[in-house]
Amino acid sequence: xxxxxxxxxxxxxxxxxxxxxxxxxxxxxxxxxxxxxxxxxxxxxxxxxxxxxxxxxxxxxxxxxxxxxxxxxxxxxxxxxxxxxxxxxxxxxxxxxxxxxxxxxxxxxxxxxxxxxxxxxxxxxxxxxxxxxxxxxxxxxxxxxxxxxxxxxxxxxxxxxxxxxxxxxxxxxxxxxxxxxxxxxxxxxxxxxxxxxxxxxxxxxxxxxxxxxxxxxxxxxxxxxxxxxxxxxxxxxxxxxxxxxxxxxxxxxxxxxxxxxxxxxxxxxxxxxxxxxxxxxxxxxxxxxxxxxxxxxxxxxxxxxxxxxxxxxxxxxxxxxxxxxxxxxxxxxxxxxxxxxxxxxxxxxxxxxxxxxxxxxxxxxxxxxxxxxxxxxxxxxxxxxxxxxxxxxxxxxxxxxxxxxxxxxxxxxxxxxxxxxxx
Length: 423
What we know:
By secondary structure, the protein is an alpha+beta fold. The chain has two domains: about 5-160 and about 285-350, Antithrombin, Chain I, domain 2 (2-Layer Sandwich), CATH 3.30.497.10; about 165-200 and about 225-285 and about 355-420, no CATH class. The chain is about 25% helix and about 35% strand. It has eight helices and 19 strands. The protein has helices at about 5-20, 30-45, 50-60, 60-75, 100-105, 115-130, 230-240, 405-420, and strands at about 30, 80-90, 110, 150-160, 170, 185-190, 195-200, 205-215, 220-225, 250, 255-260, 265-270, 275-280, 285-290, 320-335, 335-350, 360-370, 375-380, 385-390. Strand 11 (about 255-260) and strand 12 form a beta hairpin. It is elongated, with a radius of gyration of 24 Å. It starts with a helix and ends in a 5-residue tail after the last helix.
């Protein structure tokens, strides 16, 4: 994926701002990589305080924004397993500046009729088609009357990847924390690549990071903080670590004992001298519905959403203001791989076996994500964060109806035995 390092840094900066601003302990997923390419053409066509505010949120000068957005969307669409699309819809009677249109990223061009039902169906169909039905509705407000949308800008991202090494699926019951006693759909695997796990120290405390490698150019990093740590601090530290702005100590260099949140390192007796890392995490599915204007300062939209006057003379001779800015997103993490989808829309209105014989002492590490944690989908070479989120509701384990209590007990014993060192 070819793009400017400055663009990658700018998008990751917006991701970190968004993560830091997230409040509450509810599960969510969001992607600044879907918002940034929409803020860029707004900055390109804006003037006055709105232009300055958008440029600050973007992290690059407004005059470079449109070109950077084109490059970003083209590069994203070239990543294996990732599709990116853009669209613009406007009222037929809205004059648009030809030079501004020429600088937009290629994509769908359509018309708004002014009929909210008809326009909504057309926009919903676009969103569903470009996310394989994962996002069924365009996240946009289409009011009637004087506040009717004059122009809609949208982006869609759809990521699908498979793990290089799949997990095996079973069930588990955390013994402590907010998920204690719940029977969860747990994913487990064993690897010799111990340094897939590391620990970073941030302002909110230590964070354990696990890298799960995808079959294309994208990996998913799970990030776990200390008990009670909130999403803002954990995700921010995680973003700095995966983008190499904050140092991470790999497991191979950590001391024995409880070396990080959810992480234990020890020297054990084993058949092979090869070090091993054992991983346990719940499967999850999270959704996020975000009104960007509720955090307008994060996205540089405070001035642009003031409808007492127009802010975008480079877009149209008509006075325009941002009337709606929203994102709908989804992420799924399962035994075989990971999926994420997001649609972002900005609407503008008029502004006005047998135990083996043990021979070796070797290093083992176990990491368990058994309480709320974060995740980051990251392009491997550029370190662009494509999606970020927080997991509070892992998927429950679904028993087969015909399974007897004896079968359940035996399966639980077998699962436990698989995770114990043989003496």
